[in-house]
Amino acid sequence: MLERRLFASYLGAFAVVIIIFAAAVRFSFESIVQQQATNRLATLARAGEAATDFVPGGFVVNEHSLGGFDVDPKVEGLEWFDSQKRLVTRRGNEPPGYVPPQLGRFALTGAGGKRLETYTIFLQNIQHQDIGYVRAALTSDAFGQGVGALDLGIMFGSLLAILAASVGGSMLARASLARSEASYERLREFTADASHELRSPLTALSTTAAVALHEAPAMTEQTKNRLISIAATAKEMNRLVDDLLILARAGRSLEREMFTVHVDTIVKQVCERYRDSATTKSIQLEVEPGAAGQVIGNPEQVSRIIANLVENAIRYTPERGSVLVSCTGDPVNVHVSVEDSGVGIAPEHLDRIFDRFWRGSATRGNDGGSGLGLAIARALAERHGGRIFVTSHVQAGSRFTVTLPRRPPSLA
Fold it and tell me: Which CATH code, of 2.60.40.1250, 3.30.565.10, 3.30.420.40, 2.60.40.420, is assigned to 259-405?
């Protein structure tokens, strides 16, 4: 999944660059072609002017003399008009019928519906008197062929570039992912090793505090409270170390840990385990009867997933609230739902509640937890090929649903 996202990012960025570059090249080329067309039209018009011989009261056209220029009748045309804008003669390509001349550059429709670019100038005698007009014309074929060839080249060139980028992007994404996975694996191994090594001194600390409390009953109340605090802190740190160890090992394969897990039975056991915690807060903890749910996986980890969700629901449900746990299934998956009437989760925090060590909603407050419960539940659910979904409304409660496949993907 991550490799596909990286590949799509690389390819998308490269495609955007190619498109922008191609658009810039086409715009520049089209501007150059248009300028060349304008220059050619002006040259044709001057050639038409050079082909006129002035006579009293007007002019005549010497069609055999165009100032050394040849008119291509397929794509070029010349028209001469007198001072009253009456057509005198034509040569080459021109508009069908009579179209009065207009000074400057204009677009007309030529024979066969082709677009004509025209350029008209005054025809002046040696006394600089306007005695007529000369209009030069170019069909769209005169400059459209180059643009069309460029478009074709850009299209094939862009496709080849994107194809090459897809190969390069795939290799780059694979290499980046390999480095990231290697770094993540080293970090996970370090976390697992560090957590494992911390368990012994923490256990020793907790045991020493407990023994000290037992062996010296006559100690002062202040010293006793300090030892109790040390023992409680050591116990909490031990749990945090265990949580880190679970997260570090969550990416390992389930291949050697596959057992038949009766999820409905585990749901009842977990709820019984937290019954006293719920009663202490006057919370009504109920298990909704459901169909038997059976999956293949690690029973302890499935139990930990459900326990974390139930514990989370009780923690964030105020006194005299309710928590409802249900287990349902279909031919493919087993679903466990934990619904509470608690404080809920703000919409902007829904994407972050599964992040490790994240605790920060003003609504949910600082509960004193480690911020790993939901992260562990999600990691273990994903290890079994499942997912956790959540819906929530502030001050109206939350509903967490874990979906586990009856058979892990490796066995499906």
Answer: 3.30.565.10
Distance CA 269, CA 48 (A): 102
What pLDDT, in 10s, does the model give residues 356-409?
766 655 445 545 556 788 888 888 888 888 999 999 888 888 999 999 998 877
- Give me the residue spans of the domains in the chain: 2-147, 259-405
Distance CA 49, CA 53 (A): 9
Q: CB neighbours of 140 closer than 8 A, spacing ≥ 6?
A: 114, 115, 116, 117
Q: How far apart, in whole angstroms, are the C-alpha atoms of residue 215 and residue 205?
A: 15
Cα 159 to its chain centre, rounded Å, is: 22
Q: In the structure, how many helices (H) and strands (E) does the chain have?
A: 7, 14
Residue bearing the bigger pLDDT, 261 or 169: 261
Residue with the bigger pLDDT between 70 and 42: it is 42
The DSSP code sequence of 290-336 is ----EEEE-HHHHHHHHHHHHHHHHHTS-TT-EEEEEEEE-SSEEEE
State the pLDDT at residue 389.
93
Q: Counting Cβ atoms within 10 Å, is residue 94 exposed (0-12), middle (13-18) or buried (19+)?
A: buried
Cα separation, 212 vs 228, whole angstroms: 10
Neighbours of 401 (CB within 10 A): 17
CA–CA gap between residue 109 and residue 95 (Å, rounded): 6
Residues in the chain: 412
Q: Among 89-98, 240-249, 334-343, which range has the highest average pLDDT?
A: 334-343
Burial class (CB in 10 A: 0-12, 13-18, 19+), 387: middle
Buried b (16+ CB within 10 A) or exposed e, 238-266: bebbbbbbbbbbbeeebeebbeebbbbeb
- Could you tell me which residues are beta bridge partners of residue 393? 397
